[in-house]
């Protein structure tokens, strides 16, 4: 075994590599020795889960999960290792060689804190270790500091984003719209809260590289006793400008929350923030009506394909059958054709006419930088500031701010 074995009593083990065979990652061995000396060990996939339950694992700061294309057959096992590590407060640095983007994205969504490609770029592992340690220190520093204070009365505007089909850019729009609202002014801008209500597949935490707090589940399970301090301790701050309520750490049933629970959360958020941006699950649930009634504007994202058209029609009919305010809906066309694509513009027009809806916003295809920015947990304003999609979202945020929270539905 390379490095200090996990059961060594000579010195505390602060990290472990976890791989099928660490000898396949010889550069990782060198970098681990350079960064940690003898204070690390290595584990196989099967050993890792058992070791997490041992007393020696309590000193672990992080694991370096090293995988290659052969390990893609065991993604579920990889996800379980990440989940067990996160449940014990152990950071996860993902080391990947020749792994498909889909597999990489899946593991990042399940909670990996950092990603480093293999072969390792110079100093990249040590920098990743510094980042996870800094994140942990910041989390510990803020754990007992409520982000909110009693007495605030803002009655903020509620902006909702709902994807009518998977991959229509709903989370991308919600995350980047919230960031643009929060950072439009260099100083003393509006206070913005981003809420991820997708309790099963919510990816806001991934898009902003934020940890998922166990306190979120405790709050959702008992909103009757929620106060400013409890709500504040569930929030995470991104770049000192945006407050985020992530989805819980575990996959939970959507009916965990009742309409009353959602009403309490929205009332709390509106009281402390100027704008509350909500990323909704694609599924309609018992509390969807509550969010729709509270929303000042409700963005429904879609694409120019048959599944989006059918889902938009079903969505509209479902709301109309319950006499819900469909006039709040603002349909957003994701990956819209370029201005010069007259044929594409014509197809959008025919689609809107056939569905008897108005497609109010057309968001351009931002290409690979959109996925890359999300995988690295960085808003488009930082990862691809000149990207056409980022520019359109910035324009939307500016128009909302210009109208003011009392008339945000006019956006």
TrEMBL record:
Superkingdom as given in the UniProt entry: Bacteria
Family matches, as Pfam families: AAA_31 (PF13614)
InterPro entries given in the database record: AAA_dom, P-loop_NTPase, ParA/MinD_ATPase
GO CC, alphabetical: cytoplasmic side of plasma membrane; cytosol
Entry annotated with the keyword Nucleotide-binding: yes
SUPFAM superfamilies: P-loop containing nucleoside triphosphate hydrolases
Keywords: ATP-binding, Nucleotide-binding
Keyword Oxidoreductase on entry: no
Annotated AAA domain residues: 158-310
GO biological process: negative regulation of cell division
GO molecular function: ATP binding; ATP hydrolysis activity
Name by which UniProt lists this protein: AAA domain-containing protein
Protein source organism: Roseobacter litoralis (strain ATCC 49566 / DSM 6996 / JCM 21268 / NBRC 15278 / OCh 149)
């Amino acid at each position: 075994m390379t490095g200090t074995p996990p059961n060594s009593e000579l010195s505390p083990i602060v990290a472990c590599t976890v791989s099928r065979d660490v000898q396949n990652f010889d550069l990782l061995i060198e970098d681990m020795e350079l960064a940690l000396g003898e204070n690390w060990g290595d584990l196989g996939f099967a050993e890792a889960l058992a070791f997490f339950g041992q007393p020696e694992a309590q000193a672990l700061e992080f694991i370096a999960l090293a995988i290659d294309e052969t390990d893609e057959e065991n993604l579920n096992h990889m996800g379980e290792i990440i989940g067990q590590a996160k449940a014990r407060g152990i950071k996860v640095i993902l080391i990947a060689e020749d792994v498909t983007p889909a597999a990489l994205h899946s593991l990042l969504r399940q909670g990996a804190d950092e990603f480093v490609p293999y072969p390792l770029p110079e100093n990249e592992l040590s920098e990743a270790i510094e980042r996870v340690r800094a994140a942990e220190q910041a989390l510990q520093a803020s754990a007992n500091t409520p982000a909110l204070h009693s007495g605030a009365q803002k009655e903020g505007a509620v902006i909702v984003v709902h994807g009518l089909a998977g991959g229509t850019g709903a989370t991308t729009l919600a995350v980047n719209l919230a960031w643009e609202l929060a950072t439009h002014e260099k100083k003393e801008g509006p206070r913005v809260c981003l809420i991820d209500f997708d309790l099963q597949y919510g990816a806001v935490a991934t898009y902003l590289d934020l940890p998922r707090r166990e306190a979120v589940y405790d709050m959702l399970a008992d909103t009757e006793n929620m106060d400013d301090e409890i709500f504040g301790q569930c929030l995470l701050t991104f770049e000192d400008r945006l407050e985020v309520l992530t989805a819980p750490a575990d996959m939970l049933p959507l009916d965990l929350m009742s309409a009353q629970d959602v009403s309490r959360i929205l009332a709390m958020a509106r009281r402390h923030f100027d704008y509350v941006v909500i990323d909704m699950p694609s599924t309609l649930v018992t509390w969807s009506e509550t969010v729709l009634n509270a929303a000042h504007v409700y963005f429904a994202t879609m694409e120019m394909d048959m599944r989006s058209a059918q889902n938009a029609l079903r969505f509209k009919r479902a709301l109309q059958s319950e006499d819900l305010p469909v006039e709040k809906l603002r349909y957003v066309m994701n990956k819209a054709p370029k201005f010069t694509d007259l044929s594409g513009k014509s197809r959008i027009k025919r689609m809107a006419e056939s569905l008897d809806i108005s497609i109010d916003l057309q968001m351009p295809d931002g290409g690979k930088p959109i996925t890359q920015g999300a995988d690295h947990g960085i808003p488009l304003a930082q990862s691809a500031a000149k990207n056409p999609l980022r520019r359109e979202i910035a324009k939307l945020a500016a128009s909302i701010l210009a109208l003011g929270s009392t008339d945000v539905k006019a956006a």
